[in-house]
Amino acid sequence: MKIIKILFVIALLPVFSYGQYGRLGANQGEFGGGFGMTWIDDQPHYSFHIFPEVSFSKIGIGLDLNLEFDPDGNIRSENFNEFSDYISIIRYVRYGIKGDPVYVRLGALDHATLGHGSLIYLYNNSPGFDTRKTGLEFDVDFSTFGFETIYSSFGEAGLVGLRGYVRPLQFTSLKSIPIIKNLEIGASFVGDYHEFAYVKQTIADPAAFNKYNYEKENSLTAYGFDIGLPILRNRLVNLDLYLDYAKINDFGDGTAAGLNMNFHGLGLVTVNAKFERRFNNDQYLPAYFNSLYELERFSLDETSGSFSSKLKTLENAYSIGNGFYGELLVELLGTFDIIGSYQRLDEHPTSGILHLSTDITPPEMSFVARAGYDKTNIKDESDLFKLDDRSYMYAELGYKPMPYLLVSMVYNWTFTPLRDADDKVIDYVPQKKIEPRISFIYPFSVGGN
């Protein structure tokens, strides 16, 4: 029975949150809107949702206006209680896609990754609908050298990541030699300048904490070096080897050796696979800035004054051992996507990190199924699919009685902020949202055939 339950959950899983975005081709648009009844932590709310999206040439724009009203007709306070809520109506503005010579994305960052992911991997800057942020990804590849950047939020100090890289053999007579001519050497810097990034201890009086009586530094910083070698490049298969070194300042360091493989099967099937062996020293956690970092950074219990933080976890990370990381993405016929990744360290009992996502939206069919799931600090297999304060989940299952009408059930396990007397976010608590929804989705062409 347990196996059946797990298989059922896997069948529903992925695109974590906002699953409707990102599938448009060039010169396509989609106007979507819907309404329904939402249960937020078992309390009924009426919801109204508009999510238009347009893609022309390399430019894409997605908006997201979500309004929730209580039974008395009052708008839910967390919808618009700070300036960033208004900016976040712009879900994203992008130019190109990740891996293009020029890639820019402004808005919500769902799964931002720097380099091979040893420091920043699948980072999400908006841990809940009530704290959506506007960040930036900006990458440029000049063929011989380039850079990648990540900036988490324009509304507050937060995470900054920069990676520069060079292909040195492109400047020599070896640039015509197959395989080695594309050897790439990179260096990364990451800093978290949020006021809670370096909290090491605090006092037991919550009222005093609100006056910021806690021990902290100005920022948490890290750096890394990497080398990558594409060993196979053709129309069907790309194969890369890489070696990463990462160091978190004032703490430990680690190394990762990995392989990336991309297979494109004549438009029928696409397979992307990544396998990595991680070598971790004391006080080091690979992919420290991960999908749940915004939640793990700091959490305060106002009643007891006790707190937890990602930094304390890092400080206590002794003898965690080495480990493996694997990732697999499969796309069939351009309509069925599923991606899964998992980390497990050899000697650390709560080191499991899982990411799953899928999107099944056949253009000529009348059903939609998409979902996403992220979880960290997994203890064992029985802990994989327990929804708690270490989990994200999004799922939508729907039917189209008409081409432009979608009737669906949406489930979100996300987080809502807990604020102190000064309206600062000091913790996140899990929030369950169940919404029967009727959506109107109208596709259109933009400046093309």
In short:
The chain is mainly beta.
Broad shape: globular
As a whole number of angstroms, the C-alpha radius of gyration is: 22 Å
Protein structure class: mainly beta
The percentage of residues in β strands lies in: over 45%
Largest sheet geometry? 20 strands, antiparallel, barrel
Helix segment count?
A: 5
Distance between the termini: 51 Å
Task: Determine the mean pLDDT.
Answer: 78
Task: Outline the structure in words.
- The model is unreliable at 1-22 and 208-213 (pLDDT under 50).
- The protein is globular.
- β25 and β26 form a beta hairpin.
- It is mainly beta and 449 residues long.
- The chain is built from five helices and 26 strands.
- It has a 20-stranded antiparallel barrel. A two-stranded antiparallel ribbon has the order 12-13. A two-stranded antiparallel ribbon has the order 18-19.
- The protein is 7% helix and 51% strand.
Provide tags for this entry.
20-stranded antiparallel barrel; 5 helices; 449 residues; two-stranded antiparallel ribbon
Sequence-ordered SSE layout with sheet pairings:
Elements: H1 2-12, E1 28-40, E2 43-50, E3 53-56, E4 59-63, E5 65-69, H2 83-87, E6 90-95, E7 102-107, E8 135-141, E9 145-151, E10 159-166, E11 184-192, E12 199-202, H3 206-209, E13 214-216, E14 220-233, E15 237-248, E16 253-265, E17 269-280, H4 293-296, E18 298-300, E19 307-309, H5 310-315, E20 323-332, E21 336-345, E22 352-360, E23 367-378, E24 391-402, E25 405-419, E26 425-445
Antiparallel strand pairs: 1-2, 1-3, 1-26, 2-5, 3-4, 4-6, 6-7, 7-8, 8-9, 9-10, 10-11, 11-14, 12-13, 14-15, 15-16, 16-17, 17-20, 18-19, 20-21, 21-22, 22-23, 23-24, 24-25, 25-26
